[in-house]
Write a structure and sequence with these properties.
It comes from Araneus ventricosus (Orbweaver spider). The protein contains seven helices and two strands. It is mostly helical and about 140 residues long. It is rod-shaped, with a radius of gyration of 28 Å.
């Protein structure tokens, strides 16, 4: 038996169309779904929403914080700021680009591959030219 939230909403809608009260709907659903039944407060909340005029059983869109702020434009902007000032701190980058400090840190370390040495951002991995120059010095 499908005990998902959407299936229970469909059952709720049909019982509500029959004119059942919230407590009757909860008892019927508890008999059918057992421990997988939605909480009593959720069913009562749905009844209140239907009485207020809601007719759609699907979840409404809820705007919230964006999950992915990291894109190629943001990464290149962070890289440009670091190349302009090697001693820039993550908070200054976050303020400059209007993104969170928690987003800047992974961009610097994971996407760009920089590490902090003597308060300067430097690439963690040397390029081929840097490797040959290093070998020439040694």
């Amino acid at each position: 038996m499908d005990s998902s939230r959407s299936a229970q909403r469909a059952v709720f809608e049909s019982l509500r169309a029959e004119g059942k009260h919230a407590s009757q709907i909860y008892r019927r659903k508890k008999e059918v779904y057992g421990e997988h039944c939605l909480a009593r407060c959720s069913i009562f909340r749905w009844c209140q929403r239907y009485e207020a005029g809601r007719v759609n059983i699907k979840d409404l869109f809820r705007p919230g914080q964006a999950h992915f702020v990291t894109n190629s434009a943001t990464i290149s902007a962070v890289d440009e700021l670091i190349w302009q000032n090697r001693r820039i701190i993550t908070r200054e980058i976050a303020v400059e680009l209007s993104i969170g400090k928690g987003t800047v840190h992974p961009i610097i370390h994971k996407n760009l591959g920089y590490g902090e040495v003597c308060a300067q951002w430097v690439p963690k991995h040397l390029s081929d030219n840097q490797k040959t120059a290093r070998m020439g010095v040694a």
